[in-house]
From TrEMBL:
GO terms for cellular component: mitochondrion. One of its GO terms (molecular function) is mRNA binding. This is DYW domain containing protein. The keyword Chaperone does not apply. Pfam families: E_motif, PPR, PPR_2. PPR repeats lie at residues 169-204, 272-306, 474-508, 575-609, 610-640. Keywords: Repeat.
Length: 825
């Protein structure tokens, strides 16, 4: 007699009846299959004789009645072959035909089938079935259901079921420990591990120990790891997986010595390549690169055949050492072993070639790969962006979007970094729109990259909008904003953001401090620089090389060369940037002889000069008018150090020649140099022409400037002033008229002075200082004293701005166009 399905059965079957119709041949029940169904016989008939025999004789000749025993075997067969949905369908047919489910003996594999389908709704319904049929009295069934809840990511359901279990065996506890670890709750995993042993007297198995060790690695909890190690030793567990887990735990916790002890103590199982790989990776992650290389070489001397993981570990080591030669040997070895088509290995090879400077080979490997995945795409795009190939990075990003139709956070970060380096705001706006559509607009890391991109593109307002729309702002996003203010010549904004950041209890780091020092340098406020220096010293950043280099540059720009030199002398470790910073600082303040001596000491210390070094040397020569030394260093840069001069070095040489009046040689150098001259180098020569009165050359140079930058008002005014000096009023008026007709406006002049920690700012065309009357009285008195001393102006007039020519007799009036602003720091 056919039994009527109960309510739970009808609910469970109803969902699958429409979406998962069971093929007729699967259970031998007569009904019309859906068109999309694939018969069991056509799928397995010629491959699985046992299932064919079940179909042939497993059901009663009366096809309206199903046999529990044979249905159970059929479900088990489906499970063994990995056809979980078919197993579920057989069970649903049992429900449909009212088969006595309480006699069913294969609930654990059936529960696993529901779990493999990751259908949590149906898992909960089968849970209801199990409760109704009292099948949960069987601990094997409960453990199966517990494992399925963890597999479906339902930690709360798993925890509730676990604590309601009347009896818990070692499998139950081990399932919970592993489940907590896989779900990312490492503390929950360790807590359960402790409760299992101390409160319930149940001992974990190898799998639970491995999960607990992995949790210790993730948390870097060395104390818990040592306790588990002691338990493992006491229990006699000595398999390869646990040894690897122990080594990995010690390495992740920074205890290299104990990791080495475990490795050396397990001679009997050291023939496993996995253990060697973990040791090599551990050495690399802890910075023990020489030991990692020694171990890799030792491994090659054994009978162990390296696998793809070994090659990846070795390539990571080569990347850290920047050893391209060894990396190429490993590449060749991987090809000989037939491992070169492994996507992890190809990704490691690509990364190694990029980091070691062979970008072409890295790109070739990527383009020829047949197995590239999103990780490999992300690696090559990020490397292009970081290695000075931003255009290639954006092209690859575009191709990725075409191929996959989406982009994850790693790819978007790389693309934004490329836009920042290129200052391509239009492309950055497109990527911004893409990430908003992708739902990544609130990600704090992407938000920080957006802030940096807009700031680099000189759009500080958009950078601010992105920043204040972030739901959470961390130190990285604050640093991006502060750096943006500093880059866009807004030191007040940088200092204000710093104070706001501290009020939100976010502590500045070295990057923040370097940005703030940059703002101090722009303001030339030595007292503020000293305050920041004191703060950095109190926070323990005094020995940080980045901070020390920033302090050297900032003190020099603030005019305090003595403090700049003191910071340099007190540095325990100096790099090329340290030497270049102090050389440049001394040079711009006219200490050329000290610069020359210091350069010799730099070479004696084993530092290799770079282009920035010679920029500092040539700048020092220029400020001191040392033509002979300037040519000596310029020649040695090219002939001895094999450094190709760039526009910056040529600009220094032109400035040097211009200062001493050798204008023709300066002009010839510009025409002969291999790089394209910009408006700055022509502007330097134009200023020299004005100083030395070479009107004819000034007109030639001015033509070059106007062709390069027609809207630059500064150079036009400089040329106009030169004409005024020679009394060519018509020419001066013509240039002024052109400026007016083109709608060009000169930014108001601004300067400031620091008095007793107050910064007084002077801006043209305003007077709002509350002591302006006293200031003007003092200036008028000084003007009278200057005249009494016999001061005679060089020209009958001075130019203050567009269409403004003021008589020298009224020189005291020139200061009336200034604004005096006091700002308390």
């Amino acid at each position: 007699m056919v039994r009527t399905p109960d309510l739970y059965s009808r609910q469970l079957y109803g969902h699958y009846k429409v979406q998962h119709s069971l093929p007729r041949s699967s259970v031998g029940i007569r009904y019309k299959p859906m068109d999309s169904s694939i018969s069991y016989c056509s799928r397995f008939g010629n491959q699985n004789p046992s299932l064919k025999s079940i179909l042939a004789s497993g059901f009663s000749r009366n096809e309206s009645i199903m046999d529990v025993s044979w249905s159970s075997k059929l479900i088990r067969e489906y499970m063994d072959d990995g056809f979980f949905e078919d197993a579920v369908k057989v069970y649903l047919k049992m429900l449909e035909y009212g088969v006595p489910v309480e006699e069913f003996q294969f609930f654990p594999p059936l529960i696993k089938a529901f779990g493999e389908l990751l259908d949590i709704g149906k898992v909960r319904e089968i849970h209801a079935h199990l409760l109704k049929f009292r099948a949960l009295d069987d601990i094997y069934v409960e453990n199966s259901l517990l494992g399925v809840y963890w597999k479906c990511g339902e930690a709360e359901d798993a925890i509730q079921l676990f604590w309601k279990m009347p009896v818990k065996d070692s499998v139950s506890w081990n399932t919970m420990i592993s489940g907590f670890y896989r779900s990312g709750d490492n503390r929950g995993s360790l807590r359960t591990f402790s409760q299992m042993i101390r409160e319930h007297g149940v001992f974990p198995n190898r799998v639970a120990c491995l999960s607990a060790l992995s949790s210790c690695s993730a948390l870097e909890s060395l104390a818990h790891g040592k306790e588990i190690h002691a338990f493992v030793v006491k229990s006699g567990f000595d398999d390869d997986f646990l040894v690897s887990g122990l080594i990995d735990m010690y390495m992740k916790c920074g205890d290299v010595k104990n990791a080495q002890y475990v490795f050396d103590d397990e001679e009997s199982i050291r023939m496993n390549a996995v253990i060697w790989n973990v040791m090599i990776n551990g050495y690399v992650s802890n910075g023990n690169l020489s030991q990692a290389m020694d171990l890799f070489v030792e491994m090659l001397g054994t009978s162990i055949v390296p696998d793809s993981s070994t090659m990846v570990a070795a390539l990571v080591l080569c990347t850290e050492l920047l050893d391209l030669a060894v990396g190429k040997q490993i590449h060749g070895w991987a090809i000989n072993l037939g491992l070169n088509n492994d996507v992890r290995l190809e990704t490691a090879l690509t990364d190694m070639y990029f980091k070691c400077g062979d970008t072409k080979t890295g790109l070739d490997i990527f383009k020829s790969s047949r197995t590239r995945n999103t990780v490999m795409w992300g690696a090559v795009i990020s490397n292009c962006a970081q290695s000075g190939f931003p255009i290639e990075a954006l092209d690859l990003f575009h191709n990725y979007i075409i191929e996959y139709g989406f982009a994850d956070s790693v790819l978007i970060l790389a693309a934004l970094r490329a836009c920042s380096s290129l200052t391509w705001k239009s492309k950055g706006l497109q990527i911004h729109g893409l990430l908003v559509k992708s739902g990544l607009g609130s990600d704090v890391f992407i938000g920080s990259a957006l802030i940096d991109m807009y700031a680099k593109c000189r759009d500080i307002e958009s950078a601010q909008k992105v920043f204040y729309r972030l739901p959470d702002r961390d130190l990285v996003s604050w640093n991006a904003l502060i750096s943006g203010y500093a880059q866009n010549r807004s030191p007040d904004g940088a200092l204000k953001a710093l104070r706001t950041m501290q009020s939100e209890q976010i502590r500045p780091n070295t990057v923040t401090s370097a940005c703030v020092l940059s703002a101090c340098a722009y303001l030339s406020t030595v007292n503020l620089c000293k305050e920041v220096h004191s703060y950095l010293f109190r926070q323990g950043f005094g020995s940080n090389i980045l901070i020390s280099n920033s302090l050297i540059a900032t003190y020099a720009k603030c005019g305090d060369v003595k403090s700049s030199w003191t910071v340099f002398q007190n540095m325990r470790e100096k790099n090329e940037v340290s030497w270049n910073s102090v050389l440049l600082g001394l040079g711009i303040h006219g200490h050329a002889d000290e610069v020359f001596v210091l350069f010799e000491k730099m070479e004696g210390a084993g530092m290799k000069p770079d282009s920035a070094t010679f920029t500092a040397l040539l700048s020092a020569c220029s400020h001191a008018g040392r033509v002979e030394e300037g040519f000596k260093y310029f020649t040695s840069m090219v002939e001895y150090y094999k450094i190709e001069p760039q526009l910056e070095q040529y600009t220094c040489m032109v400035d040097l020649l211009g200062r001493v009046g050798d204008l023709k040689q300066a002009y010839d150098m510009i025409l002969a140099m291999p790089c394209v001259p910009d408006d700055r180098i022509w502007g330097s020569l134009l200023a020299a022409c004005k100083i030395h009165g070479d009107k004819r050359l000034a007109e030639v140079v001015a033509d070059h400037i106007m062709n390069l930058d027609p809207t630059n008002i500064g150079y036009r005014i400089l040329l106009s002033n030169l004409y005024e000096d020679y009394g060519k009023w018509n020419e001066a008026t013509r240039i002024r008229t052109e400026i007016k007709d083109m709608g060009l406006k000169k930014s108001p002049g601004c300067s400031w002075i620091e008095v007793n920690t107050d910064i007084h700012t002077f801006i043209a065309s305003d007077r709002s200082h509350n002591l302006s009357v006293e200031i003007y009285d003092a200036l008028e008195s000084l003007t009278i004293q200057i005249r009494e001393e016999g001061y005679i102006p060089q020209s009958p007039s001075v130019t203050l701005g567009l269409n403004e020519v003021i008589d020298v007799d009224n020189i005291s009036f020139t200061v009336e166009n200034c604004l005096f602003v006091s700002r308390k720091q």
